[in-house]
Each structure stands twice: as C-alpha cells, then as structure tokens.
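Hey everyone, long-time lurker, first post.

I ran two proteins through the pipeline my lab uses and got sequence/structure pairs for each. Pasting them in order. The first:
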Amino acid sequence: MMENAARPETSDGPGMMRRGSNTGRSIATALVDRAGETLLMIRQELALLRAELREKFSRTGGGTTALGAGALIAVSGWLALLASGVIGLAAVMPAWLAALIVGLVLSAIGAALLYIGKRRSDMHSLLSRRSLRDGEETRIRERFR
C-alpha cells in the first residue's frame, strides 16, 4: 500500500493518465505529434525528389540540346545533298525536270517508309498474343450465352 501511495495514479480527464512525477500525454496529443512528423517527413522527401529530378534533368538537358543540334545539322546536310543531286541532273536536263524527278523519288521513298512503319506499328502487334487469344475466347463465350 505504501508503494501505491508513493506513486498514485491520477487522471486529468479523458484519455489523460499520469503516474507519479512523469508528465503524461494524451493519445490525441501523441497522434497530432505523429501527424506533424509524418507531414514533415513527406515534405522532406518531396524536396529531395525535386532536387534529384532537377539534377537528372539538368544532365539530360545538355544531351537533349546536343541531340537536337545534331539532328538539325544532319537535316541541313541532307538538304545540301538533295540540292547537289538536282544541280547534277540539271546538267543533262532542264532544272525544273531535275527538281521534279528528285522530289518524286524522295516522296515515293517517304511514302513507302510510312506505309511500312504503319504496318509494323499496328495495334494488334502491340497486344500480346495471349491477350488477343483471351479476348477472342471471351467474345466466343458471349456469343453462345
């Protein structure tokens, strides 16, 4: 009984218990503290993510710029080659006919490449064969219900 007298249990209201000289905290206070810590941790993680993304984009930004500049220069070189082809043909035929022939040949090559690319990127080729087979089985089952 003397031990209980040395450290009496007292209640300061609902959810608040105190033992002896220890200062007790309510569950609500502890939950508020944890929520604040969680929000702080989320903010810190988002700040870290932003810093990492900035660093990665700054690295890739230089590569992207070089890639764009290289593509522009390559296209310029291609146009110079086309002009030299037209000029070369213009030595043996009228200039307008040489430009027309080069334009038609390049248009035909471009159209063929577009056609091949479209056929290869057909939606059915993007789906797995298993998905297609499962879809067909589902349609067949629905027909016979």
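...and the second, right after it:
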Amino acid sequence: MSVNFGPESMRTLEGIKRQLKQQKDLEGNQVKSDLYSHLTEVFSRILQYHPYDAYDKFEEISNLVKQTNLKFVDPKFDYELNAKKRDLSREEAEAFIKKIQNLIKEIPDVGVTPADRKLLTKDQAFQIPDLQEQAMMLEWAGIDFGEDNIFYLQKSLKRLAVLSGATKLKFFGKILGTQKDYWVVSGTLNIQEEEPNPTQEKRGVGANATVFWVTDSLLNDWI
C-alpha cells in the first residue's frame, strides 16, 4: 500500500518536523538532543528489535534512548583512534592470518612447553557467556564492538578457559588507551598459586575471589 501526500500535506509534515527539532535538551540532559531525533531513534529500535511488542516496549526504549542519547560505535581497530592505518607486508599479513587460524582452532598463540601441556584442561567443563546474545542487548544501549570482535572474543574466551583451567569466564570490559586498547576478562580459577603469599588472601577467597585477564589483541593469548 502506498500513500501519496499532496503539497499541503507535505508542508504540514515539514512544519511538524521543524517543531519537533526545536524541542531540545530533553529533560535537562547534558547531551543536546531534539525531539525529532529522539523519536527517530526510538522508532528505529522498535522496528529493528520489537516489531511485535512495540506498545509494551515503547516507554522502556524511550527511557533507554534518553540515557544513551547518542549512538556510540566502538572502533573495530585501535588504529582508528591511536594511529594511521598502514599497509601490511606479506610477512605481517601471513602472521595475522596464522593468528586467526590458531584462534578459530583454539590453538595457543604461543607455543606450549611439554611441562605446561599437562596443565591444559581440554576435557574440563567451564561456563562462558553467549556473547552474540549479549552483543545484541548492548546494541540496544548504543554500544557496538563490531561483529568481528564479538566472534574473536567468543573464541578467545573458550581458548583461555582451556589454557588457564578457569571454570567460569565472562567479558569484563574494554579500556581504550592512548597507544593500545585493552580487553579485560574476569572469572574463577580453582588452581592455587605454587607459592602463595601469606600476607594476602588465597585465590578464590575474599578480595581474590575473582581472577582477571587482559590482552591488547583478541588474537593473542591472555595474561
């Protein structure tokens, strides 16, 4: 079904649009916005994520858009913020492809010594989140890490669980640095330190109940 607007209807529509755009600074929000942009974003999210329960979700989505106000898209690569992109050499490209292959196959990025190989927990059960589902919820709040990074992060968490012996892992967050960006993961690790420090709580107890890992590239191993 198509709708044809006459000249008078179009002038009325443009007048309403101008009035909506003049309504700024919604509810005293520090980030300037106008009512037209707000409604456009609300309806966009409704059509994309809630076409069948729009009436029930309208107020919730409207409040969420008011809080975020702007759609933030996280850069996929650190050079988009920190440095200019440069062309990779053949050797660098081959090394990059090898890292991706290792990640997909869940092979450690660095070689594992025979002494450390016995520590691998290939058959141990562990819990990791469904990051694809979490990424969809984050997009509702205007946070987007990029599909490539979500896939890399999912595979990287599984590889970390196998290498570390962690029983539960979850994505903690991302820190944007001036030189590099850092991904942070938290989880539980039942393996105790070989030489525990008597002046601090044991791993898994109190302040040390949670273990954190960090990496500057999802293709690398975590430390």
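Reply from user beta_strand_b:
Welcome! Quick read of the second one: The longest strand covers residues 168-176. The radius of gyration is 24 Å.
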